[in-house]
Specification:
Its cofactor is Mg(2+). Its EC number is 2.7.1.15. By secondary structure, the protein is an alpha/beta fold. It has one domain (3-9, 39-88, 115-285): Ribokinase (UDP-N-acetylmuramoyl-L-alanine:D-glutamate ligase), CATH 3.40.1190.20. It contains nine helices and 13 strands. It has helices spanning 40-50, 65-76, 121-125, 139-151, 168-171, 181-186, 232-245, 250-264, 277-285; strands spanning 3-7, 11-17, 34-38, 54-62, 80-87, 92-99, 102-108, 128-134, 156-159, 176-177, 198-202, 208-211, 216-219. It has a nine-stranded mixed beta sheet with strand order 5-4-1-8-9-10-11-12-13, sandwiched between helices.
Length: 286
């Protein structure tokens, strides 16, 4: 099993539960706030590490208490944090408003937007079995990482969240694209081609739709008691990358990732809800 290199955002999350979302100019009471580590990059790294993956995290934090906490948290999952840099900015912050199991998220990127010129991405990526990326860091870093991975024949997984303008020429360099249903509709229609093997559209309660060159296939969702959907997409991506790093074939890897994502929604919190390998294996046996 090779290394999973995750290049992406590192945040701290502030989460509260609401009976209903406020209107413009309205103040509503929420339940107690929960402060916990987050960021799509860090979440996906933790998801893969909790399953037993050999994970390397590449990202940026601020020289503040949140940054120290985020780094300590990644260390606690035995994630290689050698390539995490700190700058004199605030660590990325996400405010998560939960309502009846669904969520709305506001992200202040902070240090995630400040990447050094001397970061040796080529040296980091050439040791990888797979590279996992998201769109919460500068696109220039994402594009550079994809080009390096392509040059060395290393597969990439790109979660295009939040959606931005992506050139088709860039998207066709990605091995596996993993948009959710809303993001999929905002992407170009002709993204399948070039080096792209599949587009995996995650659809929440409807499961996952796999688009390959000449066909599409629906993988149904797992029926669970949803308590918090925060981090489910990140769990899917981390689990999918983990399965691929073990040599699992595409459709089986999607089934595995789907199971992991479903389990993650049965607990409160993004990273705390992410399952361990034995949890998934037990459910798959059932």
């Amino acid at each position: 099993m090779g290394k999973i290199v995750v290049i992406g955002s590192i945040n701290m999350d502030i989460t509260t539960e609401l009976a209903e979302m406020p209107n413009i100019g309205e103040t509503v009471k929420g339940q107690d706030a929960l402060i916990s580590p987050g960021g799509k990059g860090a979440n996906q790294a933790v998801a893969a590490a909790k399953l037993g993956g050999d994970v390397v995290m590449v990202g940026m934090i601020g020289n503040d208490a949140f940054g120290a906490d985020a780094l300590a948290n990644l260390n606690s999952f035995c994630i290689d944090v050698t390539h995490i840099r700190s700058v004199d900015l605030t660590t990325g912050l996400a405010v998560i408003l939960r309502e009846h199991g669904d969520n709305r998220i506001i992200v202040a990127p902070g240090a995630n937007n400040e990447w050094p010129d001397d970061l040796q991405l080529e040296k980091i990526i050439t040791d990888a079995a797979i590279v996992l990326l998201q769109n919460e860091i500068p696109f220039s870093i994402i594009e550079k990482a994809v080009d390096i991975a392509l040059r060395f024949g290393i597969p990439t997984v790109f979660d295009p969240a939040p959606v931005d303008y992506f050139p088709v020429s860039f998207l066709r360099k990605i091995t596996y694209l993993t948009p959710n249903e809303t993001e999929f509709k905002q992407l170009p229609n002709d993204i399948l081609g070039g080096h792209t093997k599949a587009v995996l559209m995650t659809r929440g309660k409807e499961g996952v739709r796999i688009y390959e060159y000449n066909e599409s296939k629906d993988i149904p969702a797992i029926d669970v008691d949803v308590k918090d959907s925060t981090g489910a997409g990140d769990t899917f991506n981390g689990a999918f990358a983990f399965a691929l790093s073990k040599g699992v074939l595409l459709h089986e890897a999607v089934h595995f990732a789907n199971q992991a994502a479903a389990q993650s929604t049965t607990k409160i919190g993004a990273q705390t809800g992410m399952p361990h390998l034995e949890d998934i294996e037990a459910d798959l046996e059932k």
